[in-house]
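Researcher: Structure for this, please.
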Amino acid sequence: MLGFLGKKLKQDFTNMIESVLIVEDEFSIALDLELSLSQMGFKVLGIVDSFELCKEFLKTEIPHVILMDINLKGKLTGIETAKWINQNYQIPIVFLTALSDEKTLEEILNIDSFGYLTKPYKEKDLFHTLKIAIKNFKLLNEAKKESLEANFVNSKLKYHDQIFIKDKSKLISITISSISFFEALENYTQLVLENKKWIINGFLKDIETKLPDEFIRVHRSYIINLNKIEKIEDNFIIIEKNNIPVGRSYKSKLFKKIKVI
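Model: Predicted structure, token format:
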């Protein structure tokens, strides 16, 4: 049953490691499938003919792809078995069935499957469908992983790029990059944005421990955002027309943070 594949295709895919579980209730068809798949370079892990045996098999081995008939022995059909697999495992499923009516196709389209072939099948169609199913499943998982990682990074950046300040009974979100500087005012601290000021009930030293690296203390009464510096002149830093004094003991630390060319 090597057909179009021939010896060359067998040789080209000898090193393939993709594995297949055959779920088929007709034993003679299952044996033909096993022979064809083995000659194509796939590893057939097993043959089962019912939901119950499929469920038991998946407890011990997970294939790269499942080749699923719709008519199975036992109480559940192949479509119902596929639904259960999708709920409990991440395995691409390709249907192989003698049924080709619209109702069957609609049922298959309503679940997550990666291919559909009708009997009698052509070897090249079987080979290509399984290969595409495995590839698309890998690509889908990679896309999901990238999406999750991107969402995690974005949420992390969003969290770390904001602080909350108390305003009576409310918490107000402030974007850290919009902060120009903090100024100590006796028992309070003034937070200065470009067009707004907030009074925070807290000491400057306590606020300092909660700020990221772009903030630096330049005076006992001031913490500045390095990204907001417009000019350094004599013993002052200019930020949005505000002259902020630089204390003698803070100068060396400041100049280690900035780049001078």
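Researcher: Any notable elements?
Model: Residues 6-15 have pLDDT under 50 and may be disordered. The radius of gyration is 33 Å.
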